[in-house]
């Protein structure tokens, strides 16, 4: 039975057309021993007994953008959520919600990105589901990915950041948000703007393996660096002081941010991890990050400071500080 | 900050409105120790090392129908996928994709159904995510649920059904599909038609605990009993012969099926498990099922027969047999 070139309602109906879609599109791309029986659940062997479990929905518009697509995102985003929890990502599941008429070549392209990103991250896609809704009832393709990982032994002080700790990031801030926005609005720049979308578990492994006194890791997705630092500081006596001059921005994100009046600190990243580490280990952490392909532009961007009452501030030079508020909502919807 | 009465784009933006939605709607309903830290991943302790992992998307239209709603379905469906794999369901994650403007009271009602069904099934909702898309880019509410369970020791012969085995089901066939269809089309019947939507892990536990020689379990969702039996028999020398007179149908499903020309054997169930057991254990299996509240109308409906070449047939009386084909697609889209 031929699949045709567009997604049909029947591709989600549980009959033979569903079977053809699963075999020809998903199984070919994701083939692994846990997926192949195509049972109701994947059966997994996991030696440890402490697991991390996470889920995320992906609705990015447009689904294809410079530097990645919704498939890259759907794997990297969930891998990163596991990795920042201190887990080694192992297994993913994915649930597709497709709009009737979605082009099958586009679906194959998304699935190929998922397979490539999973391979890069060393994870297996072991379970999946596809639903198809009528034309007009969804916007092309939505993916929800869940992930499971083995939790490692975490360093003393993990989850307990405090004054004197340093804040680092593995590269330029806000690229994903601006790249998607530019793709959506058809903005054309001389400076190329690419999403930073990537699985960060390798970089994070290197940080743990270095024996650093890590306190906190978080990927700076929706709401950007501003949102996660505000969440981190909220309710504490201490706050976070960022050094404005130390914040790494790509030239393209910087200029697009100025044109649109959007602070890149509020724009989503999909390949950036904010690292909080004991001050004494900050230099070593920076070195470890810069030695990794995804951390070459890593920077020490600030520190936790007593007396800031849960605020996040940016030192803008000459002793001036501006408060970096918690965003109310996303300035750029459908960014991930 | 007040949530208001409709879902806004900002409720999915990762800022303070997202936080309010999470705290006031989800955490209140699902509160459990693994969810409460609200980290990037839930941390779980699982004694066994063999796990089952599954995912399913739920896009049912309308989201509320007699006998349940998309929330009941999103928990029961995933619990059932784990249970029929021989696992004891333990932890669920849920990813919501909401359309801007979706009424918050409806979201609370869905979440309350999820919490109640999770409690009935003895599982915890430990991780979640919410995305909001612009009005017109989704149809109200979609939910993807993933689930994790501990795999039990499976009986000898599990996964290897063969001639002489019997086929049982725990009650009337096709009620969910017809109930959703009737709700969608505004059909009004004198005979009440209710979805059978329910978590089956308790009933399935009872079957395993009875020490029966179970060969195969499957919940008969999309494509109905016809689809799963065809999948089971496909490629084998044996086939499945159903006794037409033994098939349990509710009066409402039977009459609606006749009016619409839809065979209830192709309609979705959300609280029905097809059980294949060694012929010698069929009587005991029927007894165990009928002792459970969700199996009071359980029936022995057929047997695996040599020489049928992978076909599923229904004996319609006087020795006549009709072939029950694999459905091409779903006759009733958006049924789950």
Commentary on this structure:
Two copies of one chain form a homodimer. With 336 residues, chain A is an alpha+beta fold. The model of chain A has no long low-confidence stretch (mean pLDDT 91). Chain A has helices at 16-30, 70-84, 104-121, 175-185, 201-209, 224-233, 251-260, 282-290; strands spanning 42-45, 50-58, 64-65, 68-69, 87-99, 124-133, 141-151, 166-169, 214-219, 239-243, 273-277, 299-305, 312-317, 320-323. A seven-stranded mixed β-sheet of chain A has the order 9-11-8-12-10-13-14. Chain A has a four-stranded mixed β-sheet with strand order 2-7-5-6, covered by helices on one side. Chain A has a two-stranded antiparallel ribbon with strand order 3-4. Chain A folds into two domains: 39-151, PurM-like, N-terminal domain (60s Ribosomal Protein L30, Chain: A), CATH 3.30.1330.10; 166-323, Phosphoribosyl-aminoimidazole Synthetase, Chain A, domain 2 (Alpha-Beta Complex), CATH 3.90.650. The two termini of chain A are 34 Å apart. The interface between A and B is large, with 81 and 81 residues.
